[in-house]
Every structure is written in C-alpha cells, then in structure tokens.
Design a protein that fits this description.
A hairpin with a 4-residue loop joins strand 1 and strand 2. This protein has about 200 residues and is α/β, with parallel strands linked by helices. The strands form 3 sheets. The chain has a 5-stranded mixed β-sheet, with helices on both faces. Strands 1-2 form a two-stranded antiparallel ribbon. It is built from 6 helices and 9 strands. The N terminus is likely disordered.
C-alpha cells in the first residue's frame, strides 16, 4: 500500500528520512506492563525491528522479555539491519513484535508485519488521529486491531532518552496499538496513566 509515506523517502537510496526517528520513553512500556504480559507470555522473545538506540528493548528487558534487535540505519554494529518493507520477516523476525514504527511509513510497516505467517502479536505506538482516515478504513488495516492503550498525557517523542523514563508533554495523542492475526469488529479502548512521567513540562 503506497501513500504519502513514500514521499518522505529518499527515492535515490530508497531510505527513510532520519528525522523520522526519535527515542521512545521507556516509561511508556513500564506503564503498560499489563498489556504486554497479557498479550505476550513473560520470558518470550520479542523482535524490535526499529530499535535505534534500544530504548524500547531496554524497557522490555526490564519487564521480563528477551529482545531481538533490528534497526533501519547502520549506526550500531551489534544488531541486524533488515528493511521491514523489503525483506522476508519470517526469516529474521520472531512471532511477537513490539516497536515504534517511523510515523511516515507506519501503515506500510503495520501491513508488512501483519503478512508475517507465524505472527502472534504486533504492538506499536500509533497516533489516535490515525483512526479517522478513510484510506485506512478502505485498506482494512484496523480489522486486526484488538486493543488501543491510550496514554493519559500527550507525549513529545522528541524528548531525549532518559533512564528515569520522564518525557516532555507534546501536542499529539497516542498510545499502544495491539494487532493480532485474528479479525475483530472493533478494538477495545483502554487507558494508561503516564502522569508521573510527564513532568518535564512542555517543549518550547
């Protein structure tokens, strides 16, 4: 499914623009521990396909998971570098996937992972305004959306990675989008209290 996301790629190198990558506050995993433990058996192996510096990976380790790390840029030599959209995920990706996809290719990445044969769960950060888009209704991308765990505060994803999980408050409503292979009529909406981590104020 091609859309506006492809306009944000360098057509010559077919690469995603680097400015699309920001660390995910570790607290967004900690606060949603019930989601992960209900969806994925503790102790299981999870693939983080867009790990960058590893903030989500570290947080998943904190709550009891092993993580296979992959990144879209060759900045770290200790991990894999597979292109989600142009590789066979069944060869390198585990049955459970947790990540924060680059927002400009979010749809394409979700659809690619949902095609994976042995997929059990995909949990990724998403914007709530994604739900009001005609193209997504027509594509059927949300037929596999089981739950949405909405963050109680807007998160500014430009916040630098912090060990304490604190983040700046931004202007974008977001949450964890939990997909499975099964089809559902409508997702269950839940809420995640992140107030104690939203203490850095607003970015000016």
């Amino acid at each position: 499914m091609k859309g506006k996301s492809y306009a944000c790629r360098n057509k010559k190198e077919n690469r995603i623009r680097e400015g699309d990558f920001y660390p995910t506050p570790r607290s967004l995993v900690w606060c949603a521990k019930d989601l992960f433990h209900n969806a994925i058996e503790p102790g299981s192996l999870i693939t983080e396909p867009c790990c960058a510096g590893g903030s989500i990976s570290k947080a998943l380790n904190d709550i009891g998971y092993g993580v296979i790390e992959n990144d879209l840029y060759n900045k770290r030599k200790d991990i894999m570098h597979n292109d989600i959209l142009h590789s066979n995920l069944d060869l390198w990706c585990s049955a459970n996937v947790v990540t924060n996809f680059p927002f400009t290719i979010w749809d394409d990445c979700v659809m690619a992972v949902l095609q994976k044969e042995n997929l059990e769960s995909l949990i990724t950060i998403g914007r709530l305004n994604y739900l009001s888009t005609q193209s997504r209704l027509e594509s059927g991308i949300f037929k596999h959306l089981k739950e949405i765990w909405v963050f109680s505060r807007y998160v500014d994803y430009r916040t630098e990675e912090r060990e304490d999980g604190l983040f700046y408050v931004g202007a974008m409503a977001s949450g964890w989008f939990y997909f499975t292979k099964e089809k559902v009529s409508a997702p269950v909406i839940r809420f995640v209290d992140v107030q104690k981590y939203a203490t850095l104020g607003n970015v000016k």
